[in-house]
Structures are given as C-alpha cells and as structure tokens.
C-alpha cells in the first residue's frame, strides 16, 4: 500500500477524527454511548454505511448533476441504512433494541453526508473506500472509548451487552470493573454525563493534536461551525 | 383526551427535551446557539418543519406503507418526504411570505439533515400515537428545542467570557456547560406525570 493511501486511511483516526476534530455526528455519539458495546455496534453500522455510500457516490460522481447532488446522496445513504437496519434486526436484535431510533437516524448522520460531499464527490473509488474505512474506524474508536468511560463510571461494568454482538460470549456477558459494594456514579449514563465526557474527550484530542506543533493549535470552534445537521 | 394531549406536549418540552435529554439536533444546538436571534429563528423554522413533516409522514405511513407491508421503506420514504417538504416550503415562503422567508430562509436548507425532524416522525410511529397526538408531540418537541436553544444561548454568552485552559477553549467548555444545562433539566423528571396524573 502506498504512502498516500495509508495517509487517507489513518487521517480519520486522530488528525481528522470525525467526532473529536471535525465535530460531525455528535447526536449518535452522545446518545448511544451509555454502554461500550453500543458504541461498537453503532460504529460498525455507521462504518458499513460510510464505506458503501462513499464507493457508490464516488463511482457516480460524474453522472450525478450538481444541482440535485444532495438529494441523490441522501437517497443512496438511506438505501444502505435500510439495509443495515434489516441486517441488525435479523441478526442482532438486542443491538436493534438498544440503538432504537438512532439506527435509522444514521441517514442524517453528518459524517456520512459530510464525507460524501467533501471527499467521495472529488476522489476515486479506492480512495473513497479507504476514507470511509478510516473515518469509520475513527468514529468506532471514539464511540467505544466514550462508551467505556461512561459505562465503567456509570454502571461499574465494561462491555456488558457484547454477548448480543458475539453470541459465543453468552447473553449476560459483562466485566465488572468497579465492585458492586461501591455505589456507581449513575449520572454518567444519563444525559449530562454524555455532554460532560464528550467535552473532556474533545479537550483531550485538541491537546494531543496541538501539542507537538504549536502553530497548528487553531481553535476547534472554527471547524465546528461548518458541521451542521 | 385533552389531559393526554397536554401531558404529551409538556413532557416533550420539559422531561423528554429532544436536545438536552434525547440528544437529537445537537449540531444546530452547538452551531447556531451563539446569538439569541439566530437561535430563535432556527428553532421556529425547526418547529414549523417538524409539524409539517409529521402531518405529511403519518398519513403516508399509516395509509400507504403499513397496509401494504412496506414498513421497512420508512427511512427512505421519510427522508425524501422531508427533503421535498423543505424545498417546497422554501419556494413557497420565497414567493408568498417574503418577510417570513427573510427571517427563516437561511436555516431551511440546514433542516433536511437535522436529526430532530426525522427523529420525531419515526418516534411518533414507534410510540403508536394517533394523528392528533403526533401533531401535538411534534409541536411540543419543536417548542422544547426553542426553550433549550434560547436558554443555552444565554449560558453561552457567559461561558465565552470565562477564562478556561487553552485546550478547553471553544467547543469543549461549551459541552461542559451543556452538561450543566442538561442537569438542570433533569430536575423536571416526573413533574408532568405528577401534575396531569397520567
């Protein structure tokens, strides 16, 4: 794999991490991360849609007329989301239950539309697929980290519900991190904890990426204004 | 009936607030809440589209998709209806109510990809609400969005002036402030069911 391809792939993991740096797809990030396993499930579902829609949109980029491109993109994305919904409902019903309305809402996840508009509509099929994969991995990792923090502090367990994704583990699989005798900080699994952990993680990512080169420490608020959905 | 509608309406505003409790529409919440007037404009546009979208999607789902076993097409059909509706609305306002278009126009294109709209239409179907309940629920969700945006734009003005560590500047500290706002809304839990006894 050439260097530039590798760069496209790794771009999404930290430097252009979709959630922490580009501030896209905040709604699912906050909503589903009450458990680490939900974060993994959501991340994988979004990655699948991201790769497929990036491939299709980049393959059709010369055919889709410029004026109606957004409705075209949304239709392609909605098609893949429906596919994911059916697969999840059929094979991982427990995940379908815990993601609820946020599974169909992948359609309006701005990471996917954002990458279609910013990357897939201008680049070749292979590059777009790699970009989708990289962004998807970045999204999944962020969601898993956030889910882990909230789950460990909020309910004292880790990876509970993973049995739904990997049946071999059994349905009541969970790793207890904080013993039951210590009261868990249940605020973490409710709404305020989500905002709080997200804020802390975003500050951490800013600190990490701006540390080596001081001039790159541009305010993250500037990039945030563009991200709308 | 009236009690049930009132309870749905106020639950959507205070207890199940879409932004602060259900995490829908976070992007406009963080993006447009800097100034009070743009926060109000955006929320009114969202409320308007939400009610219109619910009025359009509910009959289509119950009348066409559900009886023909096409429920799985919900996502595609709903997002297309919302996209078309927003476009129609933009053209209609431009032509017939230019004053309103001037006030809300800039926010309309952004609304198609706002997850509150698709969210409220899907949740109305999932909750099994009838047509009137769905409309009331959509209106409540919109007003709830307005309340959250207006309150938060006030909080944000104070936060911007605060001195914070370098890496917290901008969005991170805003999110921490949003956590506090959301915490204060948790205090409303149970208040609606206690008042209306439902």
Structure keywords:
heterodimer; A: 229 residues; mainly alpha; 2 strands; 62% helix; disordered C terminus; B: 198 residues; 10 helices
Number of helices of chain B: 10
Helix content of chain A: 55-70%
Q: Terminal Cα separation of chain B, in Å?
A: 11 Å
Cα end-to-end separation of chain A: 35 Å
Number of domains of chain A: 1
Q: Based on the structure, what is the oligomeric state of the protein chains?
A: heterodimer
Strand content of chain A: under 5%
**Which runs of chain A of at least 5 residues are low in confidence (pLDDT < 50)?**
214-229
User: What's the β-strand tally of chain B?
Assistant: 0
Largest sheet of chain A: 2 strands, antiparallel
**H/E topology pattern of chain A:** HHHHHHHEHEHH
Query: Globular, elongated, flat, extended or rod-shaped: what is the shape of chain A?
Result: globular
Provide a descriptive summary of the structure in words.
The complex is a heterodimer of chains A (229) and B (198). With 229 residues, chain A is mainly α. Chain A has ten helices and two strands; from the N terminus they run αααααααβαβαα. In chain A, strands 1-2 form a two-stranded antiparallel ribbon. The longest helix of chain A is centred in the middle third of the chain and has 31 residues, at 125-155. Helices cover 75% and strands 0% of the residues of chain B. Chain B is built from ten helices and no strands. The termini of chain B are close together. Chains A and B meet through helix 2, helix 4, helix 9 and helix 10 of A and helix 2, helix 4, helix 7 and helix 9 of B.
């Amino acid at each position: 794999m050439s260097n530039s391809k590798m760069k496209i792939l790794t771009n999404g993991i930290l430097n252009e991490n979709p959630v922490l740096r580009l501030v896209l797809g905040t709604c699912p990030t906050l909503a589903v991360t009450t458990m680490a396993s939900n974060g993994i499930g959501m991340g994988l579902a979004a990655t699948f849609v991201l790769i497929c829609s990036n491939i299709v949109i980049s393959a059709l980029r010369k055919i889709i007329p410029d004026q109606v491109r957004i409705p075209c993109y949304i239709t392609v994305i909605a098609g893949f989301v429906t596919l994911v919904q059916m697969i999840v409902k059929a094979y991982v019903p427990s995940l379908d239950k815990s993601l609820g309305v946020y599974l169909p809402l992948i359609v309006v996840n701005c990471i996917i539309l954002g990458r279609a508009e910013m990357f897939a509509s201008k680049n070749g099929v292979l590059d777009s697929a790699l970009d989708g994969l990289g962004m998807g991995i970045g999204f999944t990792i962020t969601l898993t980290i956030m889910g882990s923090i909230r789950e460990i502090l909020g309910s004292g367990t880790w990876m509970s519900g993973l049995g739904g994704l990997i049946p071999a583990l059994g349905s009541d699989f969970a790793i207890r991190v904080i013993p039951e005798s210590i009261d868990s900080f249940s605020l973490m699994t409710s709404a305020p904890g989500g905002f709080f952990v997200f804020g802390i993680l975003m500050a951490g990512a800013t600190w990490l990426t701006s540390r080596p080169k001081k001039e790159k420490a541009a305010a993250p608020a500037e990039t945030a204004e563009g991200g709308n959905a | 009936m009236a009690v049930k509608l009132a309870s749905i309406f106020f639950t959507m505003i205070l207890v199940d607030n879409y932004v602060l409790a259900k995490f829908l529409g976070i992007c406009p919440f963080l993006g447009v809440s800097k100034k009070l007037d743009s926060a109000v404009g955006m929320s009114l546009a969202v409320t308007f589209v939400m009610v219109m979208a619910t009025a359009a999607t509910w009959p289509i789902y119950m009348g066409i998709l559900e009886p023909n076993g096409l429920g799985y097409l919900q996502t595609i059909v709903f997002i297309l209806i919302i996209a078309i509706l927003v476009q129609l609305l933009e053209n209609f306002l431009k032509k017939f109510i230019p004053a309103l278009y001037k006030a809300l126009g800039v926010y309309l294109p952004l609304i198609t990809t706002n997850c509150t709209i698709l969210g409220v239409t899907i949740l109305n179907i999932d909750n099994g609400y009838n047509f009137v309940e769905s409309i009331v629920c959509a209106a409540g969700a919109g007003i709830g969005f307005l309340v959250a945006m207006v309150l938060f734009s006030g909080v944000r003005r104070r936060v911007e002036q605060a001195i914070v560590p370098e890496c917290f500047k901008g969005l991170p500290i805003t999110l921490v402030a949003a956590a506090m706002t959301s915490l204060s809304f948790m205090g409303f839990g149970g208040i609606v069911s206690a008042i209306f006894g439902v």
